[in-house]
Structure formats: C-alpha cells, structure tokens
Amino acid sequence: MSAAEIFLARQKRGDNKNWGLIEHSRKTAQMARELALSLGFGENFVETAFYAGLLHDVGKLNPYYQILFSSGRVDSSYLRAHAIFSALAANRLLNIAALPEYAQKQALFAVAGHHSQLSQFTKTLAFIERDKARFEKSRSGAYGNLQLFSQTVRELEGFKDLAWDKCLRKFQNTPLSETDFVAGDDFILDFLSFSSVYSALIQADRGSFFDDLQTPAFGVNLDTSVLVRAGSKLSEIRMKFQEQLLSGNKFEDKLAILKAPTGIGKTKIFLDIVNKVASSQRFERVFYFSPLLALTDDFEGKLFGGEKSASVISQEDAAKTLVYNHAFTGSLLDKRRARDSGDWFDAEADEPEFFKTKEYFERESFNKQLIITTTQRLLMVIYSNEPADKEKLVSFKNSFLIIDEVQTIPKVILLNFVSLLKAFTEKYNSKILLVSATIPDELQGLNQITTPQEVETAYLEQTKKRIAYRADCLKDTTELQSLGGEGKTLFMFNTRRKALGFFEELSLVKPDVVYLSSGIRKCDRVKIIDSLHGSASATVVSTQVLEAGVDVSFSRMYRELAPLDNIVQAMGRLNREGERSDPVLTVFRVDGDHLPYSKLEVDESAGLIPQIHSSIELYAALQDYYKKVSAENLRNKNLAKELDDKMRNLNFDDVWDFIKKHALPAELGDSLLVPDLQDWEEVKQFLYSDPKKGNVKLAKYAKFMAQLPRSIEQIDGLDVLLDEELLDKGVFMPKKENLNTVYDPKVGLDKWVKKA
Predict the structure, then answer these.
(1) What is the largest CA-CA distance in the chain?
(2) What is the gyration radius of the CA atoms in the chain, in angstroms?
(3) Cα separation of 206 and 364, whole Å?
(4) Element holding 560 (H helix, E strand)
C-alpha cells in the first residue's frame, strides 16, 4: 500500500489515534488566535497567527511521517523534514484576498522556522539544495497526500478559505521569484509583529497538548514590611524616602525609570509599586530581570528566605514563583529547599520524561505569576530567533516588567531596546519599570518617577564617602602591611590577571587574605560571602563579582579605575549602613589597559576621577559624563545604525548575531565542573550513564561550576588532566586524581590565568 493509500484509508475510517493532524492543527490555530487577541496589532494579526497555527504541520504529509506514524517504520529514502513542506504549501495556500501580503509573509516565516529559526523565506528555500534527490521524492509523495488531504478539509472552518487549487497546481514548483521582504516605515513594530506571530505559533504548538492550561492572574501577596532594616542608622531616612516616593506618584506611565541612590532600598520601592499598581490594574505576570545571578540570588533571598524565615512572599506563593536561568530552572520554593539540602538542583526536572509535562511547558513559556530571571534572558527573548527563546515572547503581554540595573545594558543597543520597550507597552499592554542608580544619556528622555529630592540629598549626605585618586597606592607596602584590625577591606580589579597578581603579592604580608572571582566555584563563593557577613574584619581581593547584588558592607574600598557608573555601583558595597565616620573609596590604576570596558568611557573617567573628592560629587558628575560619552561615541552610533538596518531588513538571524556579539557578555573561558572528592564518582556516573544528559543536566551540579580564564584548548596541559569519557560528551571535569591539580583551594581555576 502506498503512503497516499495509507493516508486515505486512515481518513476514511477516522483513525487519527497515532497522528491527529487535523485536530492538532485546528487546536494550535485556535490557541494562537487567542494569544494574538491579547495583543494590539489588529484583526489581520489575529488571523495571521490563526493561519500560521493551522498550516504549521501540513508538511507532515511528507511520506516519511505518514509511514512512521502508521507503521512505526522509518523509510530513509524520504527526507525527515516537515517545516519546509509546510512552508511550500502555505506559500500558495495563504494567497487569499482577506490577508494582506505582509500578513501572509508573517505567517509564512513563522511556519518555515517553527522548528529551526525565524528567517527570510528565501533562506529557507536553500534547504532544498542540501539533499535534492530525497527532497524531490518527499515533495512528490507529499503532493499526493496533499491532494487527498485537501478533499477532507476543504469544507472545514479555516481550511475552506485557503487557495487549495492554486496550491495543488504549484506545490511541486519551487518558488523562483521570492525576494527578501523588508519592514515598513515603523520597522520596530514590524520586527515585533513578525516575532510575535512566531512566538504565538510556537507557544500554541507546544501548549496544544495540554487541555487544562490557564492564563495566570498575578495575585502574589508582597509583604514588604519585612524588608525594613530596623535599628540601622539609615533606616529612618530610608523609610521616609520610600514613603514619600510612594505617596507622591500615581505610577500611570506605561514606561518609566526609577532613579535612586545605591542602598536606599530600591527593591522594597519597586515591590511597593507593584502592590500599588496591581491593586487597580490586573496583570497576568510580574517579571524581575537583573544583569547578574548575584542580584537574582539576592532578590530571591529577600522574597523568600526559607520556610522558617520572615519573607516577602508566602511558601505557597514561592511555589508559584519561577526562577529561570542557566544554573537553575524551577520554583523558588524548590530552589530554596534544594540549596538548603545541599543539592542545588530541581529534582523534578531530573525525571527523563519531564520535558513532556505541563509543568515543563509552563516553565519554558513563562506561564507563571512571578518570574525571576536575567537581563540576558530578556535580550534573548526579544532579539533571538531561536524557538526556545521566542516561545516566551508573547508571555510579556498584560504584564509588569521590572528591569534592574538598566545602566548595565550596553549603550550600543539602548536606543533600539527602549524603542522595543515602548512598542511592548503599546501592543502588549505591558507596564515596564527601569531601575538604576544612574541614568545613561540614552535614557534621559524617559519619564522619571518623582523622588523626594530633599530626603535624597539628606541620604546622600549621611552616606557620603570620601573619594581619593591615588594611582600608585598599591605600591605602598607600608599601607598594605597596616591593613587589618576591625572592619573589612576590599580590593576590586577589572581582570582576573590583575586580581590574582595582587592577591599573591598581598598574601606574603597578609596570609589570611580572601580571593573571589568567577574562577571560584559557586558553592565556595557562597561560603566565602556568608563568612564575610559574620566576620568583624577581613581583607578581600576580587574582580567585579562583588560589584553588585552582594549585601556585604566594607569599611575600606580600593577600586581599579573603571567607568564612573561602575565605580558608583562598587561604591554601594562601602559603608552600607553608615556605621563609619569617614569611609574612603580609593581609586587606583595598575596599567593603561581599559579592558573589559570601553576605552572612551575609561579615558573620560580617568580625566574626571582626580577632580572628584566625594560620592556626592561623583553622582553630580554622572549626567555630564554620560552626555559627553554619548556624543563622542561614534563607534556606538555606527553600530546602532547597523542594528536598525538589520532589523529594518527583517534579517532576524543577523540581528541575533549582532546582539550576541555586542550586547551579551562574552564568556571568557569554558566552564569547568569541579566536584568535591567524595562526590566525584556520583557526578561521573550521572553524566556518563545517560548520553542525553550532558550539558543539559549540568545544572544539577551548578554549585561545582567555575569559569576558566580561557577556553580549554588555549591552556597548555589542561586537557590531559580532564576525564576523557566526559570530554567526548562535551563536559569538562578533571579526573579524580587531578582535582587538586586543576582547582586551587584559594584561587580556584585562576591558577591557570598565567598559562592562558
């Protein structure tokens, strides 16, 4: 029996138990339509999403799938592919008067890329040349099945409005006149609408397998009273600032920025704003984005300290809160329990069939009331063209988005990014709050939440720090030898090479000095930071891992010259509760190297810092600094135009390549898994026993991860110390006998800095 005869027989007897193509297509179409109805792009957009859902799997008429689903047999003479055949059919079927050309293109692009990437249809057609013989055989077989399929669905709702006759006439002809489709006058909205059709299709396709999905309604109770630091010298003025800010604003702007000094209690402020706005406006979700895992960890700890601690949210709400990052994905309650037990992973996600569950879908689609994730993830969802990222996009609708430390977003994309945020507020009915202690020039035009200036001035005066520029202070061995006694001292460097060099030098006169960088395992960093909380005195040498999101107060701070806003951020670790009468931030230089920052920003800061003598003067200098950097940064202007042009031409893959290169943090080196000696056998067995686990399951042992200064192949002699069997699976872990050789108990993987 031919593939076409198998299909016809199944349709005649109504046997769809192995492959309910029609039912799945209609359910996906309806779900995509419902998602699209929540957006403000208009009626054509809603129908576009519907047809993308209806046609996304028509390509499974390819005999490869017909034979597989009817008999379980794989016929490798046919090509295992369906999106390309779905797109070839949709390219002709969508030619209906009710759907304008741009809407047809949106549906076509989404259908073609729903299992690969969102891209121009012309690039999809290149797939045909990869295995032309099997492609032509598969298309010929799909054509016969398409004829039979059309007879079945022509009278069904949705299917009946499609151009079936044209499709059947031209299905076996590869389109020759296709050209790249470009955006209209408002390329930002066009880019977002194309991305949104794609997102609605992916989420509907994956969600269609669950009958009891519900759109969340944010109802998390936020008890911010537990965030009040009673007894602190600064608690009264903080409360005054927070209360006046809350009473003095209506928070009606859809997109606004909260600028407030470091240490004033911005977390409590933006959670109070959520409470106030949510009392009168219904949200589906609330998102918290931060640029650093240290910040998300800090925020999580404030939200839910544990089952026996006073927390902003209840244990029940912690179970509804999603934590989503590369180190952990699961509920906040599960993360806290896992960390308390020492496992640091979500046991539920360890089940082999978990990816088929409703819970897995809800995590991957952000279908939760409260989501804690990273700014990097936000950029990935907005700019990426990968299905796993874009699936989450439509979940930003009717939601409150909080973007913390927004000044860390690379300035080269800020204007483009803000334009997209404005589009979200217009079309997604989202409310967006940007939070920062400083406002780059690119954000100056945004609506600012009114802050009580008199109280802020008083706070800045009470938390005033003296700033001293002493370029060569690290060469003063007498001063270094005198460090100690009561209080904590921090030396912060821009690179691991410089931090390690100074640590080794300082260790000669202070053997108890502590070292921190991304080369230290996460579990060790947590222990070190916890020990600092309970210590009256300590000397720490670090990279920027302590710049933000760490609630440790230092009495003295030495910071290598960096851009002014980075110095402000680091200054937040100095004298946090105002307990010292004359705290000093000393800025020094090691060499003329500007990395990892922009040379323009470092050079401009180098000219200003010697003239700044206090934290108040530093805050005052920021606006002119930002304005001058923005005006002189010709490279950023050229790159910003390049990004706009890629977006205008709907080059989705080029846009994503640009963001990866210029806006996402480049990994300095490979991540290495360094378990404790007693855990080595368990870790090896877990990762080696199931070839499907590999990197996907490395999150289970995130506490043992540390970052090398360079990639494995760039460090002589390191590869031979790693376990060969895991290396073949792409997992970097030392052999058991080499653990101590690879990882130093004091400086972690930074022992390899000199060899890198």
Answers:
(1) 92
(2) 28
(3) 10
(4) strand 556-560
Q: What is the pTM of this model?
A: 0.89
Domain boundary among 435, 454, 473: 454
How many other CB atoms are found less than 10 A from the CB of residue 123? 17
Q: CA-to-CA distance for 255 and 527, rounded, in angstroms?
A: 39
Q: Are 390 and 268 members of one domain?
A: yes
CATH number of 137's domain: 1.10.3210
Whole-number pLDDT of residue 489: 92
Question: Is there a domain that residue 653 lies in?
Answer: no
64 lies in the same domain as 203:
yes
Q: Same domain for 233 and 353?
A: yes
423-451 residue pLDDT tens? 999 999 999 999 998 888 889 889 999 99
**Amino acid occupying residue 30:** Q
Domain shared by 167 and 187, yes or no: yes
Tokens 């135009």, located at residue:
641
What's the pLDDT at 695? 46
Tell me which H or E stretch contains 86.
helix 83-93
* Total residues belonging to the chain: 756
Tell me if residue 131 falls in helix, strand or coil.
coil
- Which range of residues forms the domain containing residue 245? 224-454
pLDDT of residue 11: 53
Q: Where are the alpha helices (DSSP H) in 262-386?
A: 266-278, 293-303, 315-320, 332-341, 358-364, 375-383
Shared domain for 243 and 338, answered yes or no, is yes
Burial class from Cβ neighbours inside 10 Å (0-12, 13-18, 19+) for residue 449 reads buried
pLDDT of residue 530: 84
CA distance 160 to 181: 27
440 and 471 inside one domain: no
How confident is the model at residue 546, as a pLDDT? 82
Q: Which amino acid is at 375?
A: T
Could you give phi then psi for residue 248, rounded to 5 degrees?
Answer: -90, 5
Name the packing angle between helices 599-608 and 564-571 (round to 10°).
70
Residue 365, classed as helix, strand or coil, is coil
Write out the two tokens for 71: 């008999």
Listed in sequence order, the residues at least 6 apart from 72 whose beta carbon sits closer than 8 Å to its beta carbon are none
Pair 437, 531 in one domain: no
- Contact 651/672 with Cβ under 8 angstroms? no
355 and 307 assigned to the same domain: yes
* C-alpha to C-alpha distances, 165 to 53, 111, 149, 161, 162, nearest whole angstrom: 21, 20, 12, 11, 9
Q: Which amino acid is at 464?
A: K
Distance CA 164, CA 558 (A): 72
pLDDT (0 to 100) of residue 14:
53
Flag residues of the chain having pLDDT under 70.
Answer: 1-19, 176-178, 308, 340-352, 477, 481, 483-485, 548-549, 665-668, 690-699, 755-756
Nearest C-alpha neighbor of 438 from the set 617, 623, 604: 623
